[in-house]
Design brief:
Blueprint lengths: L7 H5 L2 H6 L2 H4 L8 H7 L4 H7 L11 H8 L3 H13 L13 H34 L5 H36 L4 H6 L1 H24 L11 H35 L4
Bound molecules: fe (ii) ion (FE2) (2 copies).
The site of one fe (ii) ion has 5 residues, from helix 9 and helix 11.
Length: about 260
């Protein structure tokens, strides 16, 4: 990521995003705030939501109060955990809100699309092998293989579209002065990307259920265990990835077109 010498960061940031960069304001969490707002202000808070099973990417538009109600959690206890996470926050966590549009596209390409490109072939091999070897004893592995195969195909074409078509268009917006018509033209494509994020999230939740929350049985071999560990990491990485696109990148592009 290069230094921002163009001044585009301030020019293109949504007013709400600019407010999030104010660290004093960002530290205040209320139960009326949405999950997306809370994580956008400090990405390290995503760990608390991961631990509590609260979806902060596709389900990020819900308020903290609604999310607590849906999970049967006491809001005061959740607020306390978020405050504790703030106190020990990871300064190394990259803050997507502080990035320019080109920087954010580069970051997502390298940290998330690169991860998927490396990880999917490995998981593809393991889902095939474990289903073939242990499918008789644990028939859910056959469905794990089917769900994974469909997810792999969808995500491969999704990230290719982002890398080859969408991100170059967003980078041009971020360095070309902000053409409103060009930003508006992206709206339909971004809505399609969001609906594919929903489908990926549903597939990963299905895998979580089929694998008993990624818990291998006592008799599982090492490949079996490595597969479940890999699927858990995949779900975590995808949640962070989707949060950065749905809740930070796409809203900034839409706001430039006057659509958000
Ligand atoms: Fe992506
Ligand atoms: Fe995406």
């Amino acid at each position: 990521m290069g230094a921002d010498t163009t001044g585009t960061r301030d020019r293109h940031r949504r007013p709400a995003d600019a407010g999030m960069a104010n660290r004093a304001g960002a530290s205040t969490i209320t139960i009326e705030k949405t999950i997306a707002e809370i994580v956008r202000a400090r990405p390290a808070r995503s760990r608390v939501f991961e631990e509590l099973g609260i979806d902060y990417c596709c389900g990020g538009k819900r308020s903290l109060a609604e999310a607590c109600r849906a999970r049967g959690l006491a809001p005061a206890a959740v607020l306390a955990r978020l405050s504790a996470a703030d106190a020990a926050r990871d300064e190394l966590a990259p803050d997507p809100v502080a990035m320019t549009l080109p920087e954010l596209c580069d970051h997502i390409r390298d940290a998330h699309h690169g991860y998927l490109r490396d990880e999917f072939p490995r998981l593809d091999f393991m889902t095939r092998k474990v289903a073939a070897t242990h499918g008789d004893r644990e028939p859910r592995l056959l469905e794990v293989r089917r769900v994974f195969e469909a997810l792999y195909a969808m995500i491969a074409s999704h990230t290719r579209e982002e890398d080859e078509r969408i991100f170059p268009a967003i980078r041009a917006l971020g360095s070309g002065g902000g053409d409103r018509a060009a930003a508006r033209a992206l709206a339909v494509t971004l809505a399609k990307m969001e609906s594919e994020h929903d489908a990926a999230s549903a597939a990963l939740e299905r895998l979580e259920t089929l694998t008993d929350h990624h818990t291998p049985p006592d008799w599982a071999c090492n490949t079996f265990r490595a597969l479940y560990d890999g699927l858990a990491r995949l779900q975590k990485n995808m949640r962070l990835h989707t949060h950065k696109e749905n809740n930070v990148l796409f809203p900034r592009v839409l706001s430039m077109g006057g659509a958000a």
